[in-house]
Each structure stands twice: as C-alpha cells, then as structure tokens.
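Worked example 2:
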Amino acid sequence: MSVVPDTSHLDGINYLFGYPIAHSLSPLLHQTIYDALGLRWSQLLMESKDVEGFMHLTQDSKFFGASVTMPNKVAIVPFLDELTLEGQAVGAINTIFVCEKNGKRLLCGTNTDCIGIREAITRNIEPKTARYVNGRPGMVIGGGGTCRAAVYALRKFMGCSPVYIINRDKQEVDIVMTGCWEGGFGEDLIHVEDETQASAMSPPAIIVSAIPNISPHSAAEHTIRKILKIVFGKSPRGVILEMCYHPSPVTEISMIAETAGWQVISGTQAMIWQGLEQDRYWTGKEVKDLPVNKVKSAIADALSRSRL
C-alpha cells in the first residue's frame, strides 16, 4: 500500500484507487468541483493493487467514496455491501459511495463508466447521425474492463443491435461476452474476427474504442487494423468515441476514422461525465447543479499543458 497522506485539514476524503494512476486527471476534476462548492474535500491518490489493505481506509469517518480504476474494478466487488443495477449488470465497479440503511453504514458500488459513455455520445453526436442510431449496430474495440461498460451503454442506452466486438485476443472477447450474458445484456453480440466478416457486416452507427494508442505489430493486431479500415469505409459514416486520451486524445485509430469521414469524440468527454456522475452520488447534487463548465475548462487546460 502507498503511504496514507495527512487528512487533518480536510472534512471529507475520497480516493483514486488503482495502479498506475500518476497521470490521472481524476483528482483535478473532483477538486475543481469541491473548490467551486466550497467543500473542504479532496481526492487522494492510492496507487495500489492491495484491495484488502485499501478497504481499511474506507472505515475512516471522513471517507465518503472512491474512484476505482484498473486493475481493481472487478476485484473490489466482493468487499462491498451493495451494488446498483449498473454495478450488478456491468460487473465492474469504478465508484464507491457510502449510504445508510436501517442505521447501518454501507459501502455501495456502481459503474459510472457506462453513464460517461452515454453522455459523451448523446451530448456531442451530430444530428444527422443521431437520427438513425436506435436499432442500428454498434461496435466496441477492445476486450478490457471498459468494454463491458461500453456494450452496456450501447445496448441499454443507445438501443444498438447487434453490437460487434473487435479485439486481437479471442479469450478476452469470450470473457466480455460471458460477463454481458451474466449481466443480462448479452444478446446479439458478434465477435468480428476477420476481413470477410467485416466486409459482410452492416455499418455500425456508433463505435467505442477502448484500447491503448499502440501501433500494430503482431499478425493479430494487423488484422484488427485491416478490419477497422474496412468498417470505417462503410456508409453511412457514424461516430466513434475514442476512450484513449493519454498522453494525447489524438490516436492512430481516431485519425484513420476522421480521415474516412467519421465524427470523433474524445475520451475526455466520457471521463468528465462519468466523474460528474460520481459527484452526483457523493455530493447529493444533480449534475446540472455541479460546475460543469469549470470542470471542462480545467480538463482542457491540463491537456493543453501536457502537450506543450
């Protein structure tokens, strides 16, 4: 476990719990909100994979929640008292909040990644694309923890069917698909494995890319890149949410998509809206009553400085 920082100057604390997390913009996002609301709260970094050790910190009377990131999103589930519907369905927790039931203090878990994905798309999608989303295919690139939340958002919120999954590792895809079935939203999931399948499939209206910005090296990675170029060449063009924004929101995949005529939405949008949803749980205020524009400006300024 990392060294626990001094919290004597604070009235409330939450943690960013994961590994590695040094680059994260999450503390900046939440501090912007707390300062604007006049709260002596702060989000502290806890860079660790030790879930049991972290759970001791949640017993502090000042603790009101945590942002949980990789690799702890699934491992933390058995340690929580209750899960929301989204938390149960997605099977991965990125948010802990404290609630009381029958006078007992409970640690509850939810998933706001799916909310962030929904809001990033619905608040930024071009009207010409928005008109034909419902009932059209969606697509997820990747096989990690974010992918299940992305499938959930596409199926439950955006009405996409079927949902294609593209990833270099079939075993990872099988795990995602099994998790989606267990969560009750596994219908009409299709693993696209080769160029022949890609050529025959209907064009997706929405794509969520949830892989790092790394150039292809292996044969499987080159196959994925060829599949994507086929998909991006299909009409009508749609929208892609590029979840990778570190160290830059401009990625190889986003550039290929944009060149082909797709609308690209930065993953910083998903990060902002999932964070605002977290503070809805923690502050009790609706998102519309939070300093949304200040958060957007703070994140934009931080990204601009990082690219200098």
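The chain has twelve helices and twelve strands. Residues 113 and 274 are 5 Å apart (CA to CA).
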